[in-house]
């Protein structure tokens, strides 16, 4: 009996490798990867809170699945080992000392004198000297989400590094333009916690960038949680409010329907987080720049408008986990209507209870400022171009690669048989 024709072994091996490559690539295309750059630019013991700011966001994104290999952490001082630290090896964000931000270990990529304007710009643009360690690089692509967080001492359109050099709003604007031109992100969320932080992105003109500052022009960014035992303030109010909001949401993921923290966060819109800030409690007015983030190109550069309408239009169906978590597939889980209404009602009641009126202020005729919380709910339908996060996460790339090996082995054996 004549045997069926068989493929040449080399061709069969090539098909196996091709199938492996296609499978691996497809798993990456199911969703975008998340990269994080965090820079604390202040040193000395009395700036303890700035290190705690950065470590608070570091702990948050680590909790939500972003690995250290996708985080570039820059700390200008070593607070855990500072000789004035009455709790050696520990950094806290609350006077209860319930949570040590260093408990699970931290991987600092740039420390001390390495935290410079030059190195910061090199990290974002990828222009490193030959042989620069991969662990010190931002290896994002044009399919990546990037969370950029900065904290330190600043002023009108500048942020200090080590109190002897500074980065300006123009420097940052050009750097983000270079990143976008080099295909180093698809969407970027720039958060800055410093005095007059909202002025640091005044010169921003880069599509795909969402920017938020802890305070407006002429405003300070205030500290929180003065610790009598350590003799310093532990954290800044804006960063504490941001991290606490997401941590509380993640802590609520306890029901059978919400089997993971990411599953729950995937159902909470970013607009709810943006509206959660209370200027009375923060003692400053957070500033939000939205005019270049996922907008219709014909509207780029048009600054202004009611902030509540802008939040509803752009962020009603973008998940909180979009910039803060590492995930795969882009899809929204249906949430029980009554649970969702309850969550929104609780959010709005807690935000509006301290305010008796709402208004909208301007920033020299430019972008939006949170004055007092708005009353508009998010729109029910998202823009067609806005990605929607998922809580059903596909297996990671390594699992896909391992799963295809048995298929390759069987195919190879069949090719060898005569």
Mean pLDDT over the full residue set = 75
* Strand order, sheet with most strands: 3-2-1-4-8-9-12-14-13
* Run of helices and strands: HEHEEHEEEEHEEEEHHHHEHHHEEH
How does the major sheet shape up? 9 strands, mixed
DSSP helix count? 12
How does this model look, in words?
The chain has 418 residues and is an alpha/beta fold. The protein contains twelve helices and 14 strands. The chain has helices at residues 9-29, 48-63, 117-125, 169-181, 237-251, 261-265, 270-274, 279-282, 307-315, 321-324, 337-352, 397-416, and strands spanning 34-40, 71-75, 110-111, 145-151, 154-155, 158-161, 165-168, 187-193, 209-213, 223-227, 232-236, 287-289, 361-362, 368-369. Strands 3-2-1-4-8-9-12-14-13 form a nine-stranded mixed β-sheet, sandwiched between helices. Strand 13 and strand 14 (368-369) form a beta hairpin. The longest helix is centred in the first third of the chain and has 21 residues, at 9-29. It starts with 8 loop residues before the first helix and ends with a helix. Residues 18-30, 296-310, 328-345 and 347-397 have low confidence and may be disordered.
Helix/strand layout:
Blueprint: H1 9-29, E1 34-40, H2 48-63, E2 71-75, E3 110-111, H3 117-125, E4 145-151, E5 154-155, E6 158-161, E7 165-168, H4 169-181, E8 187-193, E9 209-213, E10 223-227, E11 232-236, H5 237-251, H6 261-265, H7 270-274, H8 279-282, E12 287-289, H9 307-315, H10 321-324, H11 337-352, E13 361-362, E14 368-369, H12 397-416
Parallel strand pairs: 1-2, 1-4, 2-3, 4-8, 8-9
Antiparallel strand pairs: 5-6, 6-7, 9-12, 10-11, 12-14, 13-14
Helix pairs in contact: 1-12, 2-5
